[in-house]
Amino acid sequence: MTILYENKWVYIEQEESSIPWLKIFVQQEAKELTDCNPETQQEIFRVLIVLEKAMLDYFQPEKINIASFANYLPKVHWHIMARFKDDSHFPEPMWGEKQRDGDLQLPSMDVFIGRLEALLSGG
Amino acid sequence: MTILYENKWVYIEQEESSIPWLKIFVQQEAKELTDCNPETQQEIFRVLIVLEKAMLDYFQPEKINIASFANYLPKVHWHIMARFKDDSHFPEPMWGEKQRDGDLQLPSMDVFIGRLEALLSGG
């Protein structure tokens, strides 16, 4: 997968999906959030807040969804998704039952991804 | 629902489930995490960390799962779940397809809940 942004603590990838969906991975080897060092924990929370705000502003979704499972892949990662009333699964989680064929007309995800560095470098 | 713990920023309820599953609600009216004031955001993260560590120690699960959707109920709340290899849905999320009839022999949830005040009051 392409790494879209990274720093000392975390890196970000995109999940292939019909909705805007990013994944935050931690750089250290850790199975659980509490296995991460405090700096990494704080960075996860900081990035979640920045990404949520940016996705709300840019995509104008109905709701932001956040999740961290890692049941298959024992490596801490967080999902952040922009959800829309007419997306494939709403109001179910993206892991729930499909509700319909989604046909979303959204602003460019590539443009959003192009802003990640500026958004997250806090510069 | 019974409130198991609360303070100025958050309160905790139990989800009825065959697995240990708690929900952290925010006291303020907020649809998204970024609608919450910074103190409430920090308290959510603090409580998640404390609960994850306590659930790992007490229930010895295979994995902790964390999620915040609120697609049905537009009020910020976070799920924290202790997952086991032989629970009803593992390795799928609890919102995914059921895998089997779960039959878990776990330490008492009531005893765990009885410790929440001490765990979270930091006293």
What would you say about this model in short?
The structure is a homodimer of 123-residue chains. The first copy, chain A, is 27% helix and 21% strand.
Q: What is the overall number of helices of chain A? A: 3
**Mean pLDDT figure of chain A:** 96
Q: Which sequence of strands runs across the widest sheet of chain A?
A: 1-2-3-5-4
> In percent terms, what proportion of residues of chain A is strand?
15-25%
Percent helix of chain A: 25-40%
CATH fold category name of chain A? HIT family, subunit A
- Unreliable spans of chain A: none
- Biggest β-sheet of chain A: count, sense, barrel? 5 strands, antiparallel
Domain module tally of chain A: 1
Q: What does the radius of gyration of chain A come to? A: 14 Å
Quick one: overall form of chain A?
Answer: globular
CATH fourth-tier homologous superfamily of chain A? HIT-like
Which assembly state applies to the chains in this document? homodimer
